[in-house]
Amino acid sequence: FKFILLMTGLFLLILAMANPQWGSKREKVNRKSIDLYLAMDVSRSMMAMDVTPSRLERAIRFAGNIVNHFKGERMGSIIFAGNAYVQVPLTTDYAALELFIESANPDQVPTQGTAIADAIDLAERSFDEENKNNKVLIIISDGENHDEEALERAKQAADNGLLIFTVGAGTTEGSFVPYTINGRSDFLREETGNPVMSKLNETLLRELAQTGNGNYYNLLSDTNAIIESLQNRIDQIEKREFEQRIFTDYESYFQYFLALALLL
Prior knowledge:
Layout: H1 2-17, E1 21-33, E2 35-41, H2 55-69, E3 74-80, E4 84-91, H3 94-102, H4 116-126, E5 135-141, H5 150-159, E6 162-168, E7 175-176, E8 178-181, E9 184-187, E10 197-198, H6 202-211, E11 216-218, H7 223-234, E12 240-252, H8 254-263
Parallel strand pairs: 2-3, 2-5, 5-6, 6-11
Antiparallel strand pairs: 1-12, 3-4, 7-10, 8-9
Helix pairs in contact: 1-8, 2-3, 4-5, 5-6
């Protein structure tokens, strides 16, 4: 019993040393920003290594650079393959956003494919309804689209005020898609047994960007140049004002943990 008291007291002392704090007052702050969603393709073809270390790894790095550069804007992330899912809703918690982006992988989406139309549709539904002209979607994909509706959805979204940029991951020469099954490394294969050759579909991605009133970029280009171009286009968008509540004052509560530790 004394051992339990001693260990509990020691634990409370450690908590007291950590100096727990809670916000005692929240202040309303009005900010201006655009709403930006990053839609990242996590289909199996993104594991191809025609871009080192892989298309997906390069896409994750690029998305992280976008988050770092556009801090101050409300951002969120969408992952898609055969279906699209909101990974992080619009937020100013950039650390959490980067953490989720870094964890993106094909296993997070059970249905394979490249449903770009679903990603555009989901992004549109995820923006605030009253936001008509202050929203941006950046699609990072190899463009291996198996959905005929992508260009049509891009046009509808553009008519609703959404600005769409596309970023191509991969090369037009293509590469086989690595795949691990039962601990054995192989390539993803067709029903005939031949390895699947995945190629960057630049034509589709260019058409999507053109239809969405945006620009097309390639991950093999200079990242700083891409971000500068994005910045120039986004600066032309009128920013909308939104209210954000933040903690402005904190109170320490270490004394309660210390008192209880000493009592034990």
